[in-house]
Amino acid sequence: MTEKTVPFPELTAGRITAAQVSVAPDGTRYVVPSGMHERLRDVVVTDADEQGLDPKTDLAVAGWTSLAVDGMTDRVYVDAPDGFDNVAIVKRFARSHDAGSIVVAFHPSGTWSRWASPGAIRL
Prior knowledge:
This protein is α+β, with helices and mostly antiparallel strands. Helix content is 20%, strand content 24%. The chain is built from three helices and six strands. It has a six-stranded mixed β-sheet. Strand 4 (75-81), helix 3 (87-96) and strand 5 (101-107) form a beta-alpha-beta unit. Helix 1 runs parallel beside helix 2 (55-61). The longest helix has 10 residues, at 87-96. It is globular and about 40 Å long. The protein starts with 19 loop residues before the first strand and ends in an 8-residue tail after the last strand.
């Protein structure tokens, strides 16, 4: 069987203009267009029995982190695996989108944290 590759471009250095970014367990960052997390999940979580209703949750359980900015508000949402501690990428993403609120949900535990500014984030 041939190994599937991630069908999205890697994130370039500098300010993050993409509204949706996913970080692989090895730290590689990908720009994932809105609505395409299901496609990424199908590459990462190949066993259909391990796929749930929410692709970002499934990705987090598989070790991936999904960062998204809400286009209607100044809120950033992050779905991350338990133990995720890469505060730098969350701060960089939040600052790049002038976030006024950041919510990080950890999976599979379901715990979450919220901050009012990127500088306050502690993981």
